[in-house]
Amino acid sequence: MSEINVRSRNGDIALLLLRIVTGAIFIIAGWGKLTGIEGVQGFFGEAGIPAASLMAWVVALVEFVCGIMVLIGYRIRIPALLLALVMVGALIFVKIPAGWSALRIDLALLAITLSLFLMGSGGLAVDNRAPKEPAAA
């Protein structure tokens, strides 16, 4: 096996591992918010998030649905960007005011989601299993 193929295969495996862990984190966080939405709405209101009741639903749905999309590698750039935006909001409204120990995990998730946005899903993803559309003539 050539060095290029090994590097490509290792990159695909690395992206798969990032997608599995990141997707699972967001699926679990989103599900927790969806099943306790009233508490999330109250927390968002106390944190000063505009339109707290609506944003609680938006964040919960983005985390859950986009977490699934990241996990399976479906159109990765869209969910990765949306999750990065959620992390920016979390950092601004909740984590930065609470100090370094509160923001380091969200900062890492922001870096991971931005990396997935830039790098794509890798070769071991649903996107690479779907039939390609024929090129336009």
The tally of structural domains comes to 1
Low-confidence stretches: none
Strand tally is: 0
Q: In terms of structural class, how would the helical and strand content be classed? A: mainly alpha
Task: Describe the protein.
It is a single chain. With 137 residues, the protein is mainly alpha-helical. The chain has one domain (7-126). Helices cover 77% and strands 0% of the residues. The chain has helices at residues 3-35, 37-46, 52-72, 77-98, 100-119. Helix 2 crosses helix 3 (52-72). It is elongated, with a radius of gyration of 17 Å.
Descriptive labels:
mainly alpha; 0% strand
Topology:
Layout: H1 3-35, H2 37-46, H3 52-72, H4 77-98, H5 100-119
Quick structural summary:
With 137 residues, the chain is mostly helical. It is 77% helix and 0% strand.
